[in-house]
Design goal:
Layout: H1 5-12, H2 18-34, H3 39-46, H4 50-59, H5 65-79, H6 82-93, H7 98-116, H8 119-130, E1 135-139, H9 144-157, E2 161-164, H10 169-176, E3 184-188, H11 195-206, E4 210-215, E5 228-231, E6 236-237, E7 240-241, H12 244-260, H13 262-278, H14 289-297
Parallel strand pairs: 1-2, 1-3, 3-4, 4-5
Antiparallel strand pairs: 6-7
Length: 298
Protein backbone atom coordinates (compact mmCIF):
# COMPACT_ATOMS: atom_id res chain seq x y z
CA UNK A 1 0.00 0.00 0.00
CA UNK A 2 1.32 3.44 -0.94
CA UNK A 3 1.57 6.35 1.47
CA UNK A 4 2.65 6.70 5.07
CA UNK A 5 0.86 4.39 7.49
CA UNK A 6 0.64 7.05 10.21
CA UNK A 7 -1.01 9.49 7.78
CA UNK A 8 -3.47 6.77 6.78
CA UNK A 9 -4.34 6.09 10.43
CA UNK A 10 -4.76 9.80 11.21
CA UNK A 11 -7.10 10.22 8.24
CA UNK A 12 -9.30 7.31 9.36
CA UNK A 13 -9.07 7.98 13.10
CA UNK A 14 -12.24 10.15 13.59
CA UNK A 15 -14.48 7.37 12.26
CA UNK A 16 -12.84 4.53 14.17
CA UNK A 17 -14.51 2.51 16.91
CA UNK A 18 -13.18 2.62 20.46
CA UNK A 19 -11.28 -0.66 19.98
CA UNK A 20 -9.75 0.49 16.71
CA UNK A 21 -8.64 3.75 18.31
CA UNK A 22 -6.79 1.74 20.97
CA UNK A 23 -4.94 -0.11 18.20
CA UNK A 24 -4.24 3.11 16.30
CA UNK A 25 -2.85 4.86 19.38
CA UNK A 26 -0.59 1.94 20.17
CA UNK A 27 0.78 1.87 16.62
CA UNK A 28 1.56 5.60 16.69
CA UNK A 29 3.32 5.36 20.03
CA UNK A 30 4.93 1.91 19.75
CA UNK A 31 5.18 1.00 16.05
CA UNK A 32 8.60 -0.56 16.70
CA UNK A 33 7.05 -3.13 19.08
CA UNK A 34 3.86 -3.66 17.04
CA UNK A 35 5.84 -4.51 13.90
CA UNK A 36 6.73 -8.00 15.14
CA UNK A 37 3.54 -8.90 17.03
CA UNK A 38 1.05 -11.49 15.86
CA UNK A 39 -2.57 -10.36 15.67
CA UNK A 40 -3.28 -12.35 18.84
CA UNK A 41 -0.38 -10.79 20.77
CA UNK A 42 -1.30 -7.33 19.48
CA UNK A 43 -4.88 -7.76 20.70
CA UNK A 44 -3.78 -8.96 24.12
CA UNK A 45 -1.37 -6.02 24.44
CA UNK A 46 -3.95 -3.31 23.75
CA UNK A 47 -6.93 -5.13 25.32
CA UNK A 48 -9.00 -6.10 22.26
CA UNK A 49 -9.74 -9.38 20.50
CA UNK A 50 -7.63 -10.87 17.71
CA UNK A 51 -10.56 -10.46 15.30
CA UNK A 52 -10.72 -6.72 16.13
CA UNK A 53 -7.07 -6.37 15.10
CA UNK A 54 -7.78 -8.19 11.82
CA UNK A 55 -10.82 -5.96 11.13
CA UNK A 56 -8.71 -2.89 11.87
CA UNK A 57 -6.29 -3.92 9.11
CA UNK A 58 -9.15 -4.50 6.66
CA UNK A 59 -10.80 -1.16 7.39
CA UNK A 60 -7.52 0.62 6.67
CA UNK A 61 -7.54 -1.00 3.23
CA UNK A 62 -5.11 -3.87 3.79
CA UNK A 63 -5.98 -7.35 2.53
CA UNK A 64 -5.21 -8.86 5.93
CA UNK A 65 -3.15 -8.48 9.08
CA UNK A 66 0.09 -9.75 7.44
CA UNK A 67 -0.08 -6.82 4.99
CA UNK A 68 -0.53 -4.38 7.87
CA UNK A 69 2.42 -6.00 9.64
CA UNK A 70 4.56 -5.53 6.50
CA UNK A 71 3.59 -1.84 6.46
CA UNK A 72 4.52 -1.57 10.15
CA UNK A 73 7.93 -3.10 9.51
CA UNK A 74 8.46 -0.75 6.57
CA UNK A 75 7.53 2.20 8.79
CA UNK A 76 9.90 0.93 11.46
CA UNK A 77 12.86 0.69 9.05
CA UNK A 78 12.31 4.27 7.89
CA UNK A 79 11.76 5.94 11.26
CA UNK A 80 13.67 4.09 13.95
CA UNK A 81 16.49 5.94 15.63
CA UNK A 82 19.77 4.14 16.25
CA UNK A 83 18.89 3.68 19.94
CA UNK A 84 15.50 2.19 19.02
CA UNK A 85 17.22 -0.16 16.58
CA UNK A 86 19.41 -1.54 19.35
CA UNK A 87 16.39 -2.11 21.60
CA UNK A 88 14.34 -3.83 18.89
CA UNK A 89 17.18 -6.09 17.79
CA UNK A 90 17.88 -7.10 21.39
CA UNK A 91 14.27 -8.26 21.75
CA UNK A 92 14.25 -9.94 18.35
CA UNK A 93 17.67 -11.62 18.32
CA UNK A 94 18.50 -12.10 22.00
CA UNK A 95 22.04 -12.78 23.14
CA UNK A 96 22.44 -16.49 22.44
CA UNK A 97 23.69 -18.13 19.22
CA UNK A 98 24.12 -14.69 17.62
CA UNK A 99 26.50 -16.05 14.97
CA UNK A 100 24.06 -18.69 13.74
CA UNK A 101 21.10 -16.31 13.91
CA UNK A 102 22.83 -13.54 11.95
CA UNK A 103 24.10 -15.88 9.25
CA UNK A 104 20.65 -17.45 8.93
CA UNK A 105 19.04 -14.01 8.64
CA UNK A 106 21.48 -13.02 5.89
CA UNK A 107 20.73 -16.22 3.98
CA UNK A 108 17.04 -15.37 4.21
CA UNK A 109 17.71 -11.83 2.96
CA UNK A 110 19.48 -13.16 -0.14
CA UNK A 111 16.60 -15.58 -0.79
CA UNK A 112 14.06 -12.76 -0.59
CA UNK A 113 16.23 -10.61 -2.83
CA UNK A 114 16.19 -13.35 -5.48
CA UNK A 115 12.41 -13.50 -5.30
CA UNK A 116 11.70 -9.77 -5.39
CA UNK A 117 14.28 -8.34 -7.81
CA UNK A 118 12.90 -7.96 -11.33
CA UNK A 119 14.99 -9.77 -13.95
CA UNK A 120 13.67 -7.35 -16.56
CA UNK A 121 14.83 -4.33 -14.54
CA UNK A 122 18.17 -6.03 -13.89
CA UNK A 123 18.73 -6.71 -17.59
CA UNK A 124 17.68 -3.17 -18.54
CA UNK A 125 20.12 -1.80 -15.98
CA UNK A 126 22.92 -3.87 -17.51
CA UNK A 127 22.11 -2.53 -20.99
CA UNK A 128 22.00 1.09 -19.81
CA UNK A 129 25.35 0.73 -18.06
CA UNK A 130 26.97 -1.03 -21.00
CA UNK A 131 25.89 1.63 -23.50
CA UNK A 132 26.37 4.87 -21.57
CA UNK A 133 29.13 7.46 -21.84
CA UNK A 134 29.82 8.15 -18.16
CA UNK A 135 28.79 6.19 -15.08
CA UNK A 136 28.15 8.12 -11.87
CA UNK A 137 27.89 6.13 -8.62
CA UNK A 138 26.60 7.50 -5.31
CA UNK A 139 26.04 5.94 -1.91
CA UNK A 140 26.11 7.77 1.41
CA UNK A 141 26.75 6.65 4.97
CA UNK A 142 26.74 2.82 5.24
CA UNK A 143 26.01 2.57 1.50
CA UNK A 144 29.29 4.41 0.76
CA UNK A 145 31.17 1.11 1.06
CA UNK A 146 28.88 -0.45 -1.55
CA UNK A 147 29.39 2.50 -3.89
CA UNK A 148 33.18 2.26 -3.45
CA UNK A 149 33.10 -1.47 -4.23
CA UNK A 150 31.03 -0.98 -7.39
CA UNK A 151 33.23 1.95 -8.50
CA UNK A 152 36.42 -0.09 -8.05
CA UNK A 153 35.34 -2.81 -10.46
CA UNK A 154 33.54 -0.60 -12.97
CA UNK A 155 36.63 1.61 -13.07
CA UNK A 156 38.59 -1.42 -14.31
CA UNK A 157 36.02 -2.02 -17.06
CA UNK A 158 34.94 1.44 -18.28
CA UNK A 159 36.94 4.58 -19.13
CA UNK A 160 34.55 7.06 -17.51
CA UNK A 161 33.37 6.15 -14.00
CA UNK A 162 32.90 8.74 -11.27
CA UNK A 163 32.36 8.06 -7.58
CA UNK A 164 30.22 10.88 -6.21
CA UNK A 165 31.04 11.97 -2.67
CA UNK A 166 27.97 13.26 -0.85
CA UNK A 167 29.76 15.22 1.86
CA UNK A 168 27.89 18.50 1.34
CA UNK A 169 24.99 19.47 -0.90
CA UNK A 170 27.00 22.02 -2.89
CA UNK A 171 29.83 19.54 -3.53
CA UNK A 172 27.30 16.92 -4.54
CA UNK A 173 25.83 19.02 -7.34
CA UNK A 174 29.25 20.25 -8.45
CA UNK A 175 30.23 16.63 -9.11
CA UNK A 176 27.14 15.71 -11.15
CA UNK A 177 26.30 19.05 -12.82
CA UNK A 178 27.36 17.83 -16.29
CA UNK A 179 25.31 14.63 -16.23
CA UNK A 180 22.97 14.24 -19.22
CA UNK A 181 21.00 11.75 -21.30
CA UNK A 182 24.16 9.91 -22.42
CA UNK A 183 25.07 9.04 -18.83
CA UNK A 184 23.93 6.72 -16.05
CA UNK A 185 23.62 7.49 -12.34
CA UNK A 186 23.58 4.50 -10.00
CA UNK A 187 22.30 5.50 -6.57
CA UNK A 188 22.04 3.22 -3.55
CA UNK A 189 20.45 3.81 -0.18
CA UNK A 190 18.67 1.78 2.48
CA UNK A 191 16.66 2.77 5.57
CA UNK A 192 17.20 5.30 6.90
CA UNK A 193 17.41 6.78 3.42
CA UNK A 194 20.01 9.42 2.58
CA UNK A 195 18.50 12.75 1.51
CA UNK A 196 21.67 13.55 -0.45
CA UNK A 197 21.29 10.39 -2.54
CA UNK A 198 17.61 11.11 -3.23
CA UNK A 199 18.49 14.65 -4.37
CA UNK A 200 21.19 13.30 -6.68
CA UNK A 201 18.71 10.93 -8.36
CA UNK A 202 16.14 13.70 -8.66
CA UNK A 203 18.67 16.00 -10.35
CA UNK A 204 19.90 13.26 -12.70
CA UNK A 205 16.34 12.51 -13.78
CA UNK A 206 15.70 16.21 -14.46
CA UNK A 207 18.76 16.21 -16.74
CA UNK A 208 17.47 13.25 -18.74
CA UNK A 209 20.09 10.81 -17.46
CA UNK A 210 19.39 7.10 -17.01
CA UNK A 211 18.86 6.46 -13.30
CA UNK A 212 19.32 3.11 -11.58
CA UNK A 213 18.29 2.71 -7.93
CA UNK A 214 19.65 -0.02 -5.68
CA UNK A 215 17.43 0.01 -2.60
CA UNK A 216 15.25 -2.20 -0.43
CA UNK A 217 11.62 -1.88 -1.57
CA UNK A 218 9.11 -0.17 -3.86
CA UNK A 219 8.22 2.43 -1.23
CA UNK A 220 11.83 3.67 -1.10
CA UNK A 221 12.06 7.36 -2.11
CA UNK A 222 14.78 6.45 -4.63
CA UNK A 223 12.26 4.63 -6.84
CA UNK A 224 10.44 7.90 -7.59
CA UNK A 225 13.33 9.01 -9.80
CA UNK A 226 14.62 5.70 -11.18
CA UNK A 227 14.23 4.10 -14.60
CA UNK A 228 15.29 0.75 -13.12
CA UNK A 229 14.92 -0.25 -9.48
CA UNK A 230 16.83 -3.22 -8.09
CA UNK A 231 15.69 -4.40 -4.67
CA UNK A 232 17.97 -6.00 -2.09
CA UNK A 233 16.88 -6.77 1.44
CA UNK A 234 18.90 -5.00 4.11
CA UNK A 235 16.80 -5.50 7.22
CA UNK A 236 18.58 -4.02 10.17
CA UNK A 237 20.77 -5.99 12.51
CA UNK A 238 20.97 -3.90 15.68
CA UNK A 239 22.32 -0.46 14.69
CA UNK A 240 24.19 -2.17 11.82
CA UNK A 241 22.72 -2.31 8.32
CA UNK A 242 23.04 -5.77 6.82
CA UNK A 243 24.67 -5.26 3.41
CA UNK A 244 25.06 -8.93 2.46
CA UNK A 245 22.16 -9.03 0.00
CA UNK A 246 22.91 -5.60 -1.56
CA UNK A 247 26.53 -6.64 -2.06
CA UNK A 248 25.44 -9.91 -3.65
CA UNK A 249 23.18 -7.98 -6.03
CA UNK A 250 26.03 -5.61 -6.91
CA UNK A 251 28.30 -8.61 -7.55
CA UNK A 252 25.71 -9.95 -9.99
CA UNK A 253 25.54 -6.55 -11.72
CA UNK A 254 29.34 -6.41 -12.12
CA UNK A 255 29.50 -9.94 -13.53
CA UNK A 256 26.60 -9.34 -15.93
CA UNK A 257 28.15 -6.12 -17.23
CA UNK A 258 31.56 -7.75 -17.63
CA UNK A 259 30.04 -10.62 -19.63
CA UNK A 260 28.13 -8.08 -21.75
CA UNK A 261 31.51 -6.41 -22.52
CA UNK A 262 33.64 -9.55 -22.51
CA UNK A 263 36.12 -8.53 -25.25
CA UNK A 264 36.80 -5.11 -23.72
CA UNK A 265 37.10 -6.53 -20.22
CA UNK A 266 39.53 -9.22 -21.39
CA UNK A 267 41.80 -6.67 -23.08
CA UNK A 268 41.70 -4.39 -20.04
CA UNK A 269 42.70 -7.17 -17.67
CA UNK A 270 45.43 -8.47 -19.97
CA UNK A 271 46.92 -4.98 -19.86
CA UNK A 272 46.42 -4.77 -16.10
CA UNK A 273 48.06 -8.14 -15.46
CA UNK A 274 51.19 -6.93 -17.25
CA UNK A 275 51.21 -3.73 -15.17
CA UNK A 276 50.60 -5.61 -11.91
CA UNK A 277 53.43 -8.04 -12.72
CA UNK A 278 55.87 -5.34 -13.85
CA UNK A 279 55.34 -3.16 -10.79
CA UNK A 280 54.96 -6.07 -8.36
CA UNK A 281 51.51 -5.01 -7.20
CA UNK A 282 50.71 -8.40 -5.70
CA UNK A 283 52.79 -10.58 -3.42
CA UNK A 284 54.33 -13.49 -5.29
CA UNK A 285 52.80 -16.72 -4.02
CA UNK A 286 55.98 -18.68 -4.82
CA UNK A 287 58.55 -18.86 -2.01
CA UNK A 288 61.74 -16.90 -2.56
CA UNK A 289 64.58 -19.37 -3.14
CA UNK A 290 67.18 -17.17 -1.44
CA UNK A 291 65.09 -16.69 1.67
CA UNK A 292 64.49 -20.45 1.86
CA UNK A 293 68.21 -21.14 1.59
CA UNK A 294 68.91 -18.51 4.21
CA UNK A 295 66.51 -20.14 6.63
CA UNK A 296 68.12 -23.55 6.04
CA UNK A 297 71.53 -22.11 7.02
CA UNK A 298 70.27 -20.50 10.21
Amino acid sequence: MNGDLIELIDKSYPKMSKGHKLIANYIKEHYDKAAFMTALKFGQTVGVSESTVVRFASELGFDGYPSLQTALQDLMRKKLTTVQRIEVSSDKIGDEDILDKMLSLDIERIRRTMEETSHDDFNRAVEKIANCQTIYIIGARSSASLAQFLWYYFNLIFPQVKLVHASTRSELFEQIMRIDEKDVLIGMSFPRYSRQTVLALQYAQSRGANVIAITDCKSSPLTNYADCSLYAKSDMASFVDSLVAPLSLINALIVAVSIRNKDVVTKNFERLEKIWHEYEVYEDSKPDSNSVKGKNHE
